Amino acid sequence: PPLEAYKPQFLKLFNFFVPVMLRLVKKECKEPVVTKDTELVLSFLKLMNSHLDEFHDEDEAKKVGQADIVKRVDGAFLFCLVWSIGCTTDDVGRAKFNERLREMMSEEGVPKITVPIPDKSTCYDFCWDRSKGKWLGWLETIPTFAIQPGAKFQDILVPTIDTVRYGYVLEVQLRHGYPVLFCGDTGTGKSVMVKEKLMKGMGDGFLSHFMNFSANSKANQTQDIIDSKVDKRRKGVFGPPLGKKLVIFVDDLNMPGKEAYGAQPPIEILRQHLHWGGWWDRKEIEWRQLVDMIYVAAMGLPGGGRTHITCRYTRWYNVILVTPFDDEGMTRIFTTILGWWCTAQLPSVSVTTINAPIVAATLEIFKTVSKELLPSPAKSHYTFNLRDLAKVIQGVMSVDPKVIDGADDVFRVWVHECKRIFQDRLIDNTDQDWFHKMQGECANKHFKKPMDKIMGDGADGNGLLLYGDFILDSKKAEAEYENRKYQPVASMDLATSIIKEFMEDYNQISKSPMELVLFGYVVEHICRLDRVFRQPAGHALLVGVGGSGRQSLTRLAAFISDFAIFSIEITKNYGTEAWFDDLKTVFTKAGSEDKRMVFLFTDSQIVMESQLEDVNNILNTGSVPNLFAADEVMGILDAVSTKARAAGRGLTPTDTFEFFIDQCRKNMHVVLCMSPIGSGLRDRIRQFPSLVNCCTIDWFFPWPAEGLIAVAQQALTTIGLEPKIADSVVDQCMQFQVQAQDLSLRFLTEVNRFNYVTPTSYLELISTFKNLLNVKADEVGQQKRRYEVGLGKLLSCADNVAIMEVELTELQPVLVVKTREVEELIVELDRESADAAVTKEKCAADEAVAKAEADTTNEMKASCEADLAEALPALDAAVSALKSLTKGDITEMKSMKTPPKGVKLVMEGVCVLLEIKPEKIASEDGKGKVNDYWKPSQKLLGESVFMQRLLDYDKENIPPAVIVQIKTYVANPEFMPAVIEKQSKAATGLCKWVRAMEVYDRVAKVVEPKRLMLKKAEEDLSVMMADLKVKQDLLKAVLDKIAQLEANFKDANDNKVSLANQVDMCEKKLIRAGKLISGLGGERTRWTENVKLLGEEFVNVTGDVLISSSFVAYLGVFSSEYRDSYIAQAIQDVRGKGIPGSATVSLEKVLGNAVQIRDWNIAGLPRDSLSTDNAIMMSKSRRWPLMIDPQGQANKYFRNMEKKNKMKIIKLTDADFVRTLENSIQFGTPVLLENVLEELDPTIEPLLLKQTFKQGGVMCMRLGDATIEYSKDFRFYITTKLPNPHYMPETAVKVTLLNFMITQDGLQDQLLGIVVAQERPDLEEEKSALILQGAENKRKLAETEDKILEVLSAEGNILENQEGIQVLKDAKIISNDIEEKQKIAEETEKRIDEARAGYTSTAWKSSILFFAISSLANIEPMYQ
Questions:
Q1: What is the pLDDT averaged over residues 1075-1094?
Q2: Going edge to edge, which strands form the sheet with 1252-1255?
Q3: Average pLDDT of the segment spanning 1344-1366
Q4: Where are the beta strands (DSSP E) in 1285-1424?
Q5: Is the distance from CB of 1147 to CB of 1176 less than 8 angstroms?
Q6: Of the chain's two ends, which shows fewer C-beta atoms within 10 Å, N or C?
Q7: What's the CA gap between 1376 and 1373, in Å, rounded?
Q8: Computed from CA positions of residues 1038, 1043, 1046, 1052, in that sequence, does the dihedral angle turn out positive or negative?
Q9: In the prediction, which pLDDT does 1331 show?
Q10: HSE on the CB side for 437, CA within 13 Å?
Q11: What is the C-alpha to C-alpha distance for residues 1112 and 1108, in angstroms, rounded to an integer?
Q12: 695-712, pLDDT tens digit by residue?
């Protein structure tokens, strides 16, 4: 009603402007997001309603004057026209809109407008201020902006005209309950602006929740996320807490893929809410009405992975196109931030010198790369946005201010940061060189200095810039991570040595130590990762083929930066629940436990595309929606509430949980490892744009030549090659890698078959060479030595025969003389032995008498000592007690006027022993006199020598009268030390002494007679022993003489026996030598030839093994002609570099074993060279084999070969294949995994990588969820029937790929066997029997020769070894017999082959037919 009078004016304005401007927008302007006319008009009316809301209240409306009402209607109309109809077009369209609007405002017939838009700028640059009734510039509507001291880069948001005007429209519409949709290119600040406004600009009445859509977003997931954010108000009605409004911000709105009928389910569920006010509860099947909720959305422009969305949904929104920042806006943002940092951190450097030039140079580089480096299928990640611009400035501000001495230092950091953000993602040298040149021109233009001067010598002397925080004062940074400083790395050598120290520390604590070779390439990538980990919410996308070191370097860089690494383990049944559990683990560690985490995630771990959906959310928002259940959320809130309150947060549960998410964003860095091979990376970047937008990309190139050389040098320095040859070998290893890459390219071009040569292939080459060189050298050397020793023994036998005959003639007379001497010695020995026996008998009788006497004496001595043992302890105790008395104790006793009875009693005893007379005093009853000892005692105590008299008392000679008298005292119960001790300490010691004297006297009287008897007995015994000693000496002389005679006899007899043995041995040797010479004479010529050949082979072993190692490392997947051309070139290169090697090299000759190969052939291995080489490579490679086997030859061969070992056969489709594998690994049973496709199950990755470890002294392996024992007998074979599989590098580096496709020779041989078996089964049976017999004969021959050589090589003279001579004799008989049989068998085989040759043409034609038909598939795929 208040505006009823102004309705005509409004209608005039509407009819004059709206149709014309609508037609302009639709016909002459470009709308990146298509809208309908009705949508725009509805948006205009909603915005008008928001700007005239004061007129809804009549009381409020009355306060506004009539003139003001006209102004408000006119101003609101123009403003809303611009920001509804005019805001869906791009910058060019907006210029046309502005121009046409101004033309119309000045046309004749235009309705009168009281407040026209000012002319000084475009209509988009002004805001209509309702309260003041006038137009203001957007920046006039906000207070002056200043960055707070200590602010973090990621928290700074500098207001620009764009953020202010879009933020204003957003706020106005949200406060009036209208949804808003922002569209625009990535990096135009849509999300940042919306989040800033929702978090800080809407007040307490609004709650907000952010969610991201991706190509894999689902309707149910979207519904569940929103349902989790609302509470039940009453039955069927849900919403935020009363009095609040919930704003749901949906980012990347147009990312969800379209389903079969063209709809986007996540958008449809949101549309249902907007249209019907709610949706159905899927569990209860009840309608849920959702109230007090408003949607805000943002989306990129349609194209790539982004789609056009239905107008049935966009009609609910005010659609606003966010145009890219203009140069003025971007310059304002970054000069404000960089200027603030320079002022605060670099007081010595002029802000004007560095601020404007750096921002201008960064803008120019950003615009140039955005224009020139456009995305293509191979370069789908060549998309740049303002985040990249911000990362450069953030990187410059990360550097330690202490290392900045002038402007050049800041420029140098800028050069480095631009290379990290823009150059590191470029995929080839052409693009990188272009960028370097362009950056140089830009630096020269803005900094007025050539870039080479800014960069200086760099870390490598060639201008390489490296920055890191792991070096401090040329040492390993030991400081806490937060205190580390981001500084330039002075030299590559220093960085390498520091990283090596860190790697050694890592290996000491890791279950899986890494032996990385550190060279420039490795150091650069570690510095890049270190830089990412420094930045808040810094994430990395590492793009490179499998085996290029992405995961290893990430683990090492995380350790250097003091981060814990987290990576998921894929099991057979790994699904959503396991994935969420892993995510909860890493979020809990990062958020609740405040641990710094690196989440390492590779494309080989993607078992569900929803994983990338969650990773996309982590990169974008730092969280995964609905990851935690309600009870888990409560646990998280409890865990972080204290820290949240300490940080000034956590006033509400929502804010506490946001604090937890912030902690996760701060502490968790995601590192994604992707392969550029195939379309996987391209598709994922299209579906999940955060992989590029939120990550720093680092492209891993193939190792450079200097890196390959450095790796080879470090690995091959310890194997004992001559320096010159070692250098040539290192260079040739590098050459092999390059040639293998070229061969793979040729292979792809000519036959459309893929093969990838990775750094892992190179490491396999070096490892194989190291392992095989020593083994082969030892094997050849040992064989050569055995033949040489055998020849030597044969030659020495002939020479020794004449010497032994002379020796035998000389020994026989000596033997006769020695025999006579022995007989004479026997007679003399008998005579002397009889005399000695008499002397020995007499001496023994005297010894018996002396022993009896000695026993008697010892008994007497023991009796004396036992008696004394009673008296001596008491005496010692008394003496100790006396010595413990002090002068004060004696004085105390002496001064007693009326001493206690016990003291007087003790002193009487002392006086009696010392024979001191008592005084006569009157008795107490007055009748007569009694003896009194106290006064004499006092006098005695006063003597200075009193104590000494007691100690020196002659206890041996106490008069009997004294003893009689003293016994009366000792018998007195009151004369006990325990009683006396209660009256006087001094008296106690004297009491003990008196009693000891009495005891000693009593014992001494008993002991003394015994002592006298003991003394006499000892004297008698001494005389007797002296007499015995004389007799014993006489006996010893006699016995010594006999012993000497016996020794002489033994020596003479030994000489005689030795001579007899020599004569006997000499005679036997002559016989054996004759046998040996006659038996092995025929081997001499053959062994001599073998020694010569082995000598040449030993010299050439280095080159031959090097070429064979390259064969094993690189050529498994190639067919014969490619293998042959590679080996021919390799032989030429090796010999050209001066490495000793053979003129022709074959794997069969260098690494093969004829007997073993024959066994393989019997088991079904085709006899052509390709198959033989495959089998040898399989036996020599460290990795398990994966056979490309479309004809099933390898499968058949494995089944036959391992039949006796009960091999298990599995497929990845088997439900229990993991259980079968576990059992087989434990018990050492071979396993054949057949019919695999181009991807292997991630569960078997630990098995492919042979990730074993020791646990409890036993080798173990973790397979899936189980830890199992690992048997060394276990073998694993894999086959595929795909004729031309494309295995990604990530798979190829884990297995040995072998091309087992049938060859024409192999097929012809097999077909010939089939034809002959059909036509002449007798011949084929005989042929098969002969093959088996021949193999057995050759095996026995080899064993026999080994036996002969082993006996001949034994230590010592072969002629002295009777058993050895017999073994040689038997072996030679067997050898001759086998050779005869073999001759007969070969003649028979020749006859059979001649008969079979008649069928060769049939087999040849059949093989030609097979290959011709097989080739038809190259013309048309249906001819398979």
A1: 61
A2: 1252-1255, 1258-1263, 1266-1269
A3: 61
A4: 1296-1299
A5: yes
A6: N
A7: 5
A8: negative
A9: 65
A10: 6
A11: 6
A12: 999 999 888 888 888 888
CA 976 from chain centre, in angstroms, equals 84
Which residues touch 8 (CB under 8 Å, ≥6 apart)? none
238: tokens are: 């849900």
The token duo for 940 is: 């005695």
* Angle between helix 1321-1353 and 1154-1162 (nearest 10): 150
Rounded alpha-carbon distances, angstroms, from residue 856 to 862, 1008, 1018, 1194: 10, 18, 10, 98
Q: Are strands 245-251 and 206-212 parallel, antiparallel or unpaired?
A: parallel
- Structure token digits, residue 1328: 């098969």
Phi (first) and psi of residue 1277, to 5 degrees = -125, 140
What is the pLDDT, as a whole number, of residue 1063?
Answer: 65
**What's the distance, CA 1090 to chain centroid?**
49
Q: Angle at Cα 382 formed by Cα 380 and Cα 385, nearest 5°?
A: 125
The whole-angstrom separation of Cα 566 and Cα 618 is 15
More confident residue, 1084 or 272: 272
Task: Please give the Cα distance from 1318 to 1312 (Å, whole number).
Answer: 10
For residue 1369, give both structure tokens: 């004799």
Question: What is the average pLDDT across 226-244?
Answer: 91
Give the whole-angstrom CA distance, residue 135 versus residue 79.
9
User: CA–CA separation, 872 vs 1003, rounded Å?
Assistant: 10
What tokens does 909 get?
A: 């005893």
Largest CA distance in the chain: 170
Q: Which amino acid is at 1067?
A: E
Among residues 1419, 1180, 1162, the alpha carbon closest in space to that of 1298 is found at 1180
Our CA angle for 1309, 1310, 1314, nearest 5°, is 120
Amino acid 794: pLDDT: 61
Count each helix (H run) and each strand (E run) in the chain, helices first: 49, 30
- The pLDDT value recorded for residue 1365 is 61
The mean pLDDT of the chain is 84
pTM beyond 0.85: the answer is no
> Which has the closest alpha carbon to 700: 892, 893, 364, 425?
425
H/E segment holding residue 1419: none
Q: For residue 421, which of 369, 493, 351 has the smallest C-alpha distance?
A: 369
Query: Using the 8-state DSSP alphabet, how is residue 46 labeled?
Result: H
Taking the chain, what is the end-to-end CA distance rounded to the nearest angstrom?
82
Please list, residue by residue across 585-607, b when 16 or more beta carbons sit within 10 angstroms of its beta carbon and e when fewer do. Answer: ebbbbbbbeebbbbbbbbbbbbb
User: How far is residue 650's CA from residue 1259's CA, in Å, rounded to a whole number?
Assistant: 50
Percentage of the chain beyond pLDDT 90 is: 30
Polymer length in residues for the chain: 1424
For residues 591-609, give the mean pLDDT: 90
Asked if residues 656 and 635 have their Cβ atoms less than 8 Å apart, the reply is no
In angstroms, rounded to a whole number, what is the distance separating the alpha carbons of residues 419 and 524? 12
Integer Cα distance of 943 and 1178 in angstroms: 111
What are residue 1252's DSSP bridge partners?
1261
Q: What distance in Å separates the CA atoms of residue 273 and residue 266, rounded to the nearest whole number? A: 11
Structure tokens at 1416: 């038809």
Q: Could you tell me whether strands 929-932 and 919-922 are parallel, antiparallel, or unpaired per DSSP bridges?
A: antiparallel
> What number of other Cβ atoms are within 10 A of residue 8's Cβ?
10
521, amino acid identity = Y
DSSP label of 1157 = H
Torsion, Cα of 706, 707, 710, 714 (10° steps): -170
Helix (H) or strand (E) holding 919: strand 919-922
Backbone angles phi, psi at 382, to 5 degrees: -80, 60
Q: Which of 178-187, 265-274, 1392-1401 has the lowest mean pLDDT?
A: 1392-1401
Cα radius of gyration rounded to whole Å, the chain = 53
pLDDT of 16-29, one tens digit each?
999 999 999 999 99
Alpha carbon distance 452, 78 (integer Å): 55
CA angle 177/183/188 to nearest 5° reads 115
